[in-house]
Specification:
With 135 residues, the protein is mainly α. It is built from 4 helices and 2 strands, in the order E-E-H-H-H-H. Strands 1-2 form a two-stranded antiparallel ribbon. Helix 1 (19-29) crosses helix 2 (42-58), helix 2 (42-58) crosses helix 3 (64-78) and helix 3 packs across helix 4 (86-111).
């Protein structure tokens, strides 16, 4: 790992994910999310956000609904010291997944290369986007 303790950006041809950038974004913004519990620090949410953005990179051609059960099964081994059960963690993980999905959609739009089965990007629940889903 580089001396500055930041992992190099990861990704495939579709999107590059910089763990330090994602972590900084969620640290700065998690309290504005509807699901955030004021009594829990970011350290309880961090594993769920990381799990979401890493899972999006791990499953670049799959939708959240297709992998959610697998992610639920894997949460226990990825939760670290988080006190979040899957019911709460999945909200943060899906948020991070969708943030990467938005970037993918933006890149496809810029490149004019939206796959036929891509469908519309998911909305951001915190933005008031009516297309946002929180199932």
């Amino acid at each position: 790992m580089p001396e500055n303790d930041q992992a190099p950006p990861r990704g495939n041809a579709r999107v590059v994910i910089n763990d330090a950038d994602e972590d900084r974004y969620w640290r700065d913004n998690y309290r504005q999310r509807e699901y955030a519990d004021d009594t829990l620090s970011y350290d309880h949410y961090r594993p769920a956000y990381r799990y979401g953005w890493e899972s999006r990179a791990r499953y670049p051609d799959r939708r959240w609904a297709e992998v959610e059960r697998d992610l639920e099964r894997g949460w226990r081994s990825n939760r670290g010291t988080s006190r979040l059960g899957w019911g709460d963690a999945k909200l943060a993980a899906r948020d991070a997944w969708q943030r990467i999905e938005h970037r993918l959609a933006d890149e496809r739009e810029l490149n004019g290369s939206a796959p036929a089965d891509a469908g519309p990007p998911h909305g951001d629940p915190a933005s008031g986007d009516p297309s946002a889903t929180m199932s």
